[in-house]
Design brief:
- The protein is α+β, with helices and mostly antiparallel strands.
- The chain has two domains: 131 residues, Penicillin-binding protein 2a (Domain 2), CATH 3.90.1310.10; 112 residues, Beta-lactamase (3-Layer(aba) Sandwich), CATH 3.40.710.
- It is built from 13 helices and twelve strands.
- A four-stranded mixed β-sheet has the order 3-2-1-6. The chain has a two-stranded antiparallel ribbon with strand order 4-5.
- Helix 10 crosses helix 13.
- The longest helix has 39 residues.
């Protein structure tokens, strides 16, 4: 009987040891490997209060800061400011005491707050040198001139503009209109922040909506590249293949006449080539070509260009989709 009790005690002891080991391993995993991720969650308000005690890293375009932290004399030691807020709001997003973070402020929060594991050595150096810890800087590919030009062209109208370097894929402009001033949401007055947010959120023009990332819009003439690629891959067309390029073309099954941007035909005798049509962005030639190729060929090619795929810039963008079972005019 004593031996049986000893065996039972040994089993219970072994079970307790296993549970303790599992607990220690789990705590170690959280503290060592997951601490940065947990600290970096923009909605963690306790962390946010802690982060206001250190200088948050700037968001830079070349040498220009479009988001930066400045010292204050209140309990929260730093205030997040946006020098040209409405121009870059669709990029920076906001960093708010009440509503957390959006945009780059959210996506790069670990770096900007200084919680990224890559700052480990820097933190040790700052600790031993008794220096105040700082967040890291983020440098973007946005071209200030391109962004300003995009916002000027939108001129307050509802819409979006994205400019991309075709050789590298770098985003040079990401404009959304109407925009908003993120400074309205980054103050240290929670009441003002909430009132400003509610006013922006109630605006029927939806200034808080990041149109180039949250919405899918008709691609316009940029889709001619997809149609041209589908034509070349079909094996039935080369750069010099002649295409009809009249002043207008009727879209089958409709009363719609699609015309060219300049109101003219795209070549002598209303004829052009695939290469020339692409160079001058001939609407009628590509409308005809799209209908000739058909929906399946264009849809397959669109997927090769990234349609139906998720991607980040690093903010998550809405998935581009090709219409399911489009009618013939939709392929034009």
């Amino acid at each position: 009987m004593v031996k049986a009790m000893i065996r039972q005690i040994n089993r219970v002891t072994a079970a307790i040891v296993v549970l303790l080991l599992a607990l220690i391993i789990n705590l170690s995993y959280i503290q060592v490997f997951k601490a940065g991720d947990l600290r970096g969650q923009a909605g963690n308000q306790r962390v946010t209060l802690t982060e206001y005690s250190r200088e948050r890293g700037p968001i830079l375009l070349a040498s220009e800061a479009i988001a930066e932290s400045t010292p204050t004399s209140d309990a929260l030691k730093y205030l997040r400011e946006y020098p040209d807020g409405s121009t870059y709001a669709s990029i920076t997003g906001f960093y708010s005491l009440v509503y957390g973070a959006t945009g780059i402020e959210s996506e790069a929060n670990n770096i900007l707050a200084g919680n990224d594991s890559r700052f480990f050595v820097d933190r040790l150096q700052q600790l031993f040198a008794n220096r105040e810890p700082k967040g890291g800087a983020i440098r973007l590919t946005i071209d200030p001139d391109a962004q300003m030009a995009a916002m000027k062209a939108l001129n307050g109208r509802t819409g979006a503009v994205v400019a991309i370097d075709p050789t590298t894929g770098a985003i040079l402009a990401l404009a959304s209109s109407p925009s908003f001033d993120p400074n309205l949401l980054s103050s240290h007055d929670a009441g003002d922040i909430q009132a400003n947010y509610e006013e922006l959120n109630a605006d029927t023009n939806q200034p808080l909506l990041n149109r180039p990332l949250a919405m899918t819009l008709p691609p316009g003439s940029t889709f001619k590249l997809v149609t041209a690629a589908a034509a070349l891959e079909s094996g039935n067309y080369v750069a010099g293949t002649e295409l009809p390029g009249p002043t207008q073309i009727n879209l089958p099954g409709t009363d719609v006449q699609l015309g060219n941007w300049n109101g003219k035909s795209c070549g002598p005798g209303d004829v052009t080539t695939l290469q020339a049509a692409l160079e001058i962005s001939c609407n009628t030639a590509f409308a005809w070509l799209g209908m000739e190729l058909g929906a399946d060929a264009i849809s397959e090619q669109a997927q090769k260009f990234g349609f139906e795929s998720e991607f980040e810039v690093p903010m998550t963008a809405a998935i581009s989709r090709f219409p399911v079972d489009p009618n013939k005019p939709q392929t034009a």
